[in-house]
Amino acid sequence: MTSADLYPFSQAPITRLLLGRRAFGSMGGGKAGVLIERNVMVYRRVWVAMVSGFFEPVFYLLSIGVGLGKLTGAVDGVPYAHYVAPGLLAVSAMNGAVFDATFNVFFKIKYAKIYDAMLATPLRVGDIALGDIMWAQLRGLMYSAAFLVIMLAMGLVHSWWALLALPVTVLIGFAFGAVGMAATSFMRSWQDFDMITLALMPMFLFSGAFYPLSVYNPQIRVLIEALPLYHGIDLLRALTLGRVHIGLLWDVLYLTVMALIGAAVAARRLEKLLLT
Amino acid sequence: MVDLSTSPTSARTASSEEPLIKAVGLRKVFPPTKRGGEPFTAVDGIDFELRRGEVFGFLGPNGAGKSSTMRMIGCVSPATGGELSILGMDPRVDSSKIKARLGVVPQEDSLDMELRVRENLLIYGRYFGLKRAEIAARTAELLEFVQLSDRADSPVEPLSGGMKRRLTIARSLINSPEILILDEPTTGLDPQARHVVWDRLFRLKQSGTTLILTTHYMDEAEQLCDRLVVMDHGRIAAEGSPRELIERYSTREVLEIRFAPDGADRAAAGAALAALVGTGERGAVDRIEELPDRILLYSDDGEAALAAVHGTGTVPVASLVRRSSLEDVFLHLTGRTLVD
């Protein structure tokens, strides 16, 4: 009996679709699906803990989009709530993914030793890294879907293109989750996580979620455009406002490359940490 | 009794003489932990073979290289040098295939605290790619075996140390492994819990499971192991069955004597005791080991040796005659005790 016979899910199309077998090479990745099974088992009982992730962007939307929007008038040719909602969607996709891939992963490596137990089985580091990144995206996908429904109900969606916003939030989450996990692999203690807050906070405030980049001078604008969150916001805003153009492919490419590099680094680093 | 032993493959290849695990010159060197530091050699070129159906032990103190060896066998630690073949495969190439046929009980229980007892086994089986129905049936059997059936739906956290260890053992058997690896299976357990674990391991042994275990408890090694190696400082100091090792490296009996803590009596007794060594008379002492808290006199007749000690005018505050154990073998080979 070979391992291939034992593992029908090694052919799981979702893994191939997301990263391809080659991305992790000998480190595996094809059996990532069981990580999701494990997490479903855990959260089946504590699903209430997952609800909070849904409210955060909704509260932002009500407070800043609707409340503050009463004062600002139209921005970029649309009412402020219409403008800010896709920005908040991108931010929430980022935050959710980063939280899962940093704090939760660090806890699992250092304290819960869950990965050590998994590595005693045929699972490989690549399966584990990919599996937990994918789980974070599944969670994010549910939040994003709910947020889009609320946007739709509030009349903030301008186009059918908005359907594509869902896969785009997954792409944003994957990119940030992968890079977050890679960064976590370098963390020595909880104090190091301040660095993550330090990186996320300004990105959240200045990447164009709340106002157009036209307020900046050209130098700062170039700097902001180099940041990943800007590309996520740009994509989602174009889709929900129905302003689709060919330049968006650049955003997609940026986030895809970021996801692939992050995932490869994360898997290699985890291998170094766990297979000593 | 339920069939706890191993997968059908074991029957298929049972006739072959090929060892299940073969290590030649196996080495593990860890890089320096800080800049400019020295690399640490945990395993320094060891050779051993594991045969099907036997219980093979690594006996040694903490830091002897036992756990590093287990981790290399478990395919979670790449060897630095030498050759290692597990079930005829190379862990560098086929780690997943090898791990599919191993069961591992790590030194620290790595149970999934976010899941219940039964769920721990269920998801672990899924990591092996087993089907849910198959796992469910096996889970019931295994929980029965480790006496945790009544805790199946309990969270893991409140279980006692002994229960957690038993659950870890049940978990390691979910894939009907051909080799079960146990790294210090009873360390940290109270005596009663240790005996329950020993009993379960003994039953596994009886049912034909091949076990490889590390321990720094000589009674554990003597009870369970068919064959063992004594490990110290990353090397193998001796190999054999517990009985062979005791016969080769120790006398039949040991006389332990203690002196008052001030040390004056003890210092005075030193020369008198040394005169008892190798006299050729009945009760002659083969050799003497001085430990901080007591002196050990190795002799084939402990009572006669005690009489001889009294004959020199030495008066210890306490004395004890016992049979030689692996502890004595270890002491003889390394000059140190197993558990400090």
Structure, explained:
The complex is a heterodimer of chains A (276) and B (340). Chain A has 276 residues and is mainly alpha-helical. Chain A has twelve helices and no strands. In chain A, helix 5 runs parallel beside helix 8 and helix 7 runs antiparallel to helix 8. The longest helix of chain A is centred in the middle third of the chain and has 33 residues. The two termini of chain A are 29 Å apart. Chain B is α/β, with parallel strands linked by helices. Chain B has two domains: 239 residues, Rossmann fold, CATH 3.40.50; 73 residues, Alpha-Beta Plaits, CATH 3.30.70. Chain B is 36% helix and 24% strand. Chain B contains twelve helices and 13 strands. In chain B, the strands form three sheets. Chain B has a six-stranded mixed sheet with strand order 5-6-7-3-8-9, with helices on both faces. In chain B, helix 4 packs across helix 5. About 3% of the residues of chain B have low confidence.
Which features would summarize this protein structure in a list?
heterodimer; A: 276 residues; mainly alpha; 72% helix; globular; disordered N terminus; B: 340 residues; alpha/beta; Rossmann fold; Alpha-Beta Plaits; 2 domains; six-stranded mixed sheet; 12 helices; 13 strands
Set down the secondary structure blueprint.
The complex is a heterodimer of chains A (276) and B (340).
Chain A: H1 3-6, H2 13-18, H3 33-45, H4 48-72, H5 80-112, H6 114-119, H7 125-153, H8 165-184, H9 194-206, H10 218-225, H11 228-241, H12 248-274
Chain B: H1 8-13, E1 21-30, E2 40-50, E3 55-59, H2 66-73, E4 81-86, H3 91-99, E5 102-105, H4 117-127, H5 132-145, H6 161-172, E6 179-183, H7 191-206, E7 210-215, H8 218-224, E8 227-232, E9 235-240, H9 242-249, E10 253-258, H10 264-274, E11 287-290, E12 295-299, H11 302-311, E13 318-323, H12 326-334
Parallel strand pairs in B: 3-7, 3-8, 5-6, 6-7
Antiparallel strand pairs in B: 1-2, 1-4, 8-9, 10-12, 10-13, 11-12
Helix pairs in contact in B: 4-5, 6-7, 9-12
Domain ABC transporter (chain B): 21-258
Membrane topology (chain B): Peripheral membrane protein
GO molecular function (chain B): ATP binding
